[in-house]
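Predict the holo structure. Ligand: nicotinamide-adenine-dinucleotide.
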Amino acid sequence: MLAVIGSPVSHSLSPLIHNRFARALDLPYAYMAFDVTPETLGDFVGAARALNMAGFNVTMPLKRLVLPYLAEDPGARAPGGAVNTVAVRGGGLYGASTDGSGFLLSLDMLDLGAGSGGALVLGAGGAARAVASALRGRGVYTRVAARRPDMFPEKYADERLPWDRIGRAARGAELVVNATPLGMSGTGAQFDDFEFLDSVGRGGIVYDLVYSPRKTHLLMEAETRGLRAVNGVAMLVGQAALSFEIFTGRRPPDAVVSETLEAVIRDTG
Ligand code: NAD
């Protein structure tokens, strides 16, 4: 058995994605969504051990709260210490983050990259750290703009700039990644303005990790400027493929991952 835990979690696309992987690989796993709060996390962990689950994904608000339950420090495998994948082995819990590697996999699936203009990552949280460190690992010059750039670990970025210099940070960038919740439905928070997009390099890519709504205000503004707009569904499927491999030992083939991405886009609008 596999699961995603968090709260709220009922609208999670993870069951759809992982159950497709299991069917495609003919593996006997069922993947479910469980609403688990910080108060019930301990009970869930006990149940996961007792039921001998293969593993579970962790989403908001549990990504850091799960750390004390892990058998070892996820360290470098989870930049910023936010875990999205927990494997259960012999009663022990082992954490990892597939956000950064899943993001890179999504770039490869969509045949996207960031050339000499480099990348700009917006935000300083778990997703921003994972994405920035993955891009740097690929040799991409990576700037980060955040409200508290000093809070962003130096080792994950080439340059850290304050939010009010976002226009300068975007200058010539070939890839801009929104790793803040700005524009996400339900939060009400929105970018103050989109002028910074005028500084992005010609033909650049704007990748919003937000996938609800599918087309955020940021992506609409990117398209009106002739930039390529990509939403967070691609990363969601990429990180799921890598979590699935950690849980089951089997990596869904690239064709299955791409078909799953198409199916999610088709079936969930
Ligand atoms: P987090 O809470 O760890 O970090 C959020 C960051 O956004 C923080 O640095 C915060 O300061 C910043 N922020 C919030 N409001 C802001 C504002 N008004 N102006 C400037 N910065 C602001 O969250 P996270 O886990 O890093 O997730 C960030 C976003 O990425 C969320 O929308 C999440 O849904 C999305 N995400 C998507 C995927 C995917 O697979 N597509 C995976 C992980 C996260």
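The first strand starts at residue 2 and ends at 6. The mean pLDDT is 94.
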